[in-house]
From TrEMBL:
Keywords: DNA damage, DNA excision, DNA repair, Excision nuclease, Hydrolase, SOS response. This is Excinuclease cho. It comes from Rosenbergiella nectarea. One of its GO terms (molecular function) is nuclease activity. Residues 25-100 form the GIY-YIG domain. GO terms for biological process: nucleotide-excision repair; SOS response. It comes from the Bacteria. PANTHER family: EXCINUCLEASE CHO (PTHR30562:SF10), UVRC/OXIDOREDUCTASE (PTHR30562). GO terms for cellular component: excinuclease repair complex. The keyword Cytoplasm does not apply.
Length: 278
């Protein structure tokens, strides 16, 4: 329950009341600005801009942001996919003070299955959209290591057989003595059995390879808006209102985990997808 002085801090400036009257109940991205600032304090997205902004104003923990905000602007989109893509792109470009998520990362890590071993792979070395047998997206190698260790504990996998820990010649791994490994390192199960269990344990985290020959357009439209989101190997390129002239893209060895998550959901949700490079 909010304390009395918290509620006092929560009251937003009068000029924001005037801004609210002009906010649309449509999909898009909104921006909180400080006076005389060229970079927004915060960028958000919603299928209903007005409703989402009002929710900020009803939240006591947003008091600091609201005290700093001088005005609120917005950019409408044809739909939710466009709003998500625009938000993620602008946050990486502008780095607003109050946005902690979706900021650009220099590299990501994943796990590559090279039976019977696991390798730690960086996005600076491989393009994840074109590399098979990848599982999980991690901010650093340590997070990837913690993930596979926890997965091994949950499914009694052998970290020595996976190449994550050093194997002891003629002896089972240390975890087998603790009952945390089912014993492939001692011959209690075959490599084939162990590999099947590894794949089953990893399956929910598999990274999907790009399923098209090249670029595609995701089509979103509503009254007054007709957007084509140009995508190339899970990379968001830009949004255009016609496919008469579609910009070419360079093949970069880059992978954006945020775009991947947004687009992976979108492509398999029944939206209209138009291949551009058949």
């Amino acid at each position: 329950m909010a304390r009395e002085h918290d509620t006092e801090l929560y009251r937003y400036p009068q000029q924001l009341r005037d801004t609210l009257a002009h906010l649309p109940s449509t999909p898009g991205v909104y921006f909180f600005w400080a006076s005389n600032s060229h970079v927004p304090l915060y960028i958000g997205k919603s299928v209903n801009i007005r409703s989402r902004v009002l929710s900020h104003l009803r939240t006591v923990r947003e008091a600091k942001l609201l005290r700093q905000t001088d005005r609120i602007t917005y950019t409408e989109t044809a739909g939710d996919i466009g709003a998500q893509l625009l938000e993620a792109t602008l946050i990486k470009q502008l780095i607003p003070l109050h946005n902690k998520q979706l900021r650009k990362q220099r590299s990501l890590f994943t796990l590559q299955w090279n039976e019977p071993r696991i390798a730690f792979v960086s996005s600076t070395e491989h393009n994840f959209a074109r590399t098979p047998n990848l599982y999980g997206l991690f901010r650093n190698k340590r997070s990837a290591m913690e993930f596979i260790q926890n997965l091994a504990d949950e499914h009694q996998l052998c970290l020595a057989t996976l190449g994550v820990e050093t194997a002891q010649r003629g002896r089972g791994c240390f975890r087998s003595m603790l009952g945390k490994c089912r014993g492939v390192c001692q011959g209690k199960e075959t490599l084939e059995q162990h590999s099947r269990r590894v794949i089953q344990a990893l399956s929910a985290w598999q990274i999907k390879m790009w399923p098209y020959k090249g670029r595609v357009a995701i089509h979103e439209q509503r009254e007054g808006f007709n957007d084509y989101h140009i995508i190339d190997h899970w990379r968001y390129i830009n949004t255009v209102d016609t496919l008469t002239v579609v910009p070419q893209t360079q093949h970069e060895n880059s992978f954006d985990g945020d775009s991947y998550r947004i687009l992976c959901r979108a492509l398999f949700s029944g939206v209209e997808v138009i291949p551009l490079d058949e």
